[in-house]
């Protein structure tokens, strides 16, 4: 089990060491990539040698935030650092070789399994980006424009541009400080939240058409199949934050999106909650985790099998606390 480190202790740990390789999680979002990119940038600015392990699932929209830091050549790290990654089960395939050698994990998930030797984890923070911001300011007193940009990506994406229920005063204050330091928030907000491709519009229409309501309308379940992705022409960037749609419907407390991935028995569930229901408890049942308002899990079953099990658990058959 990890030894717990504060932000101050973590900043000191980085300053005393060098040669870092930073890991991000599978199906990387703006928080893990923005946090990793900002950490790499900040460490390089104080003279450290640091790279990110290439994450093959990085989408074109997010590639620009991390491509300058991908490891290449024969770099041999002295320290492995994971960001925004709650368990080794979330490691990309090419990171599994490091699963027993992670020196430090910086995270904000209450479900973190303690796999790293050291853990800097603040579950009350809306994003990992807020923690990285405080670590960088502890190390050098400020953050550069380059780091501010990536940290704004991290915080804004994990809060849905500051409208999700996990948004806190600290997230808003940190974002304001990043804007003061030069983060181009107008351009980023348009890129990340107000630009939709034709593929995105098409997949949204399909998603709305297959929504099912359960438990007097408190639970909404929708699916995204491989055929839907192919027919709509949607790509990964188009479905990055699509799981928030079901909870935007009036009366829905729990929104669940079941996504078919590489095969009919390779699926992912994304659970969003309005706050009265603990999404992470539901996902832990399926071997995943996350936060009270947003969580997920990977499941080796078909969509119909997953749907049946979800309804069983939500109905209280397994005694899940907080069932609707």
Topology:
Blueprint (H helix, E strand, L loop, with lengths): L2 E2 L2 H9 L4 E4 L6 H16 L4 E3 L7 H4 L15 E5 L18 E6 L10 E4 L6 H13 L4 H14 L10 H12 L4 H9 L4 H12 L2 E3 L4 E6 L1 H7 L21 E7 L6 E7 L5 H7 L3 E2 L3 E6 L3 H12 L10
Helix pairs in contact: 1-4, 2-4, 2-5, 4-5, 5-6, 5-7
Q: Tags for this entry?
A:
324 residues; 11 helices; six-stranded parallel beta sheet; single chain
Structural commentary:
- Helices cover 35% and strands 17% of the residues.
- With 324 residues, the chain is an alpha/beta fold.
- The strands form two sheets. A six-stranded parallel sheet has the order 1-6-5-4-2-3. Strands 7-8-9-10-12-11 form a six-stranded mixed sheet, with helices on both faces.
- The model has no long low-confidence stretch (mean pLDDT 94).
User: Considering DSSP H and I runs of 4 or more, what fraction of the residues is helical?
Assistant: 25-40%
N-to-C span: 34 Å
Got a strand count? 12
Largest sheet, in brief, is: 6 strands, parallel
Element-by-element helix/strand order:
EHEHEHEEEHHHHHEEHEEHEEH
In order across it, which strands form the biggest sheet?
1-6-5-4-2-3
Please state roughly what percent of the residues sit in beta strands, choosing from under 5%, 5-15%, 15-25%, 25-35%, 35-45% or over 45%: 15-25%
SS-based class:
alpha/beta
